[in-house]
Specification:
CATH topology: fumarase
Number of domains: 1
Largest sheet: 5 strands, mixed, barrel
Number of strands: 7
Strand order of the largest sheet: 2-3-4-5-7
Order of helices and strands: EHEHEHEHEHEEH
CATH architecture: Alpha-Beta Barrel
Structural class: alpha/beta
Strand content: 15-25%
Distance between the termini: 47 Å
């Protein structure tokens, strides 16, 4: 099975368990291990610190032939989180512009293969397909929801950003973002739970 360009597996203790802070929010640090993912449940509020890779439709479309041909991807997906966003240009004095999420289902056809390669997290908005949710269970992955319409606020949690691949795609180029305390919520966990379905059941009449 193909891996990505950097063949060095991210160093991380396999026994780490993510626990809630006194304020009830779980602090998540990348890269993620299987134990980290298993510690997360749908509905958990989290603060993510470490690296997020950005990628939307155009970048994922370029991933597909590489995965089909068992060729390396532009970065090592193992243990990482891909955030479905295309940042706007940074204003003077800012690290990055607005970084609001795009709809996760647009990446559904690519997600299972990326999870099979070791991707541990995805972040966007909206629900995911049954196939993606099954892949999260099979490969121990998690889907986070970011707050839509709050891209300018979310940019405050980005400390550093650099383009790592596909610069010709402009805003949809793959970027490596270093973040601190980036807020999100667990929508789909690796145990088969779905926050959207749970919410509908809770308020169904």
């Amino acid at each position: 099975m193909g891996l990505s360009a950097d063949r060095t597996r991210p160093a991380r203790s396999p026994t780490r368990v993510i626990k809630a802070s006194p304020d009830g929010i779980k602090d998540v640090t990348t890269p993620l291990s299987d134990a980290d993912v298993e510690s997360l449940k749908s509905g958990d509020r989290v603060r993510i610190t470490g690296t997020l890779y950005t990628g939307r439709d155009a970048a994922h479309a370029r991933f597909l032939p590489l995965m089909d041909e068992d060729k390396p991807l532009p970065f090592d997906v193992r243990g990482q989180i891909i955030y479905y966003t295309g940042p706007s240009p940074a204003r003077p004095g800012m690290v990055i512009g607005s970084v609001g999420p795009t709809t996760g289902s647009r990446m559904d056809k690519y997600a299972p293969k990326l999870l099979a390669l070791g991707l541990k997290g995805m972040m966007g908005k909206g629900s995911r397909s049954m196939e993606v949710r099954a892949a999260l269970r099979k490969y121990k992955g998690v889907y986070f929801g970011a707050v839509g319409g709050a891209g300018a606020v979310l940019s405050r949690y980005v400390r550093k950003v650099e383009i790592v691949a596909y610069e010709d795609l402009g805003t949809e180029a793959i970027r490596r973002m270093e973040v601190e305390g980036f807020p999100a919520i667990v929508v789909n966990d690796c145990h088969g739970n779905d926050l959207y379905q749970e919410g509908m059941k809770a308020y169904a009449r």
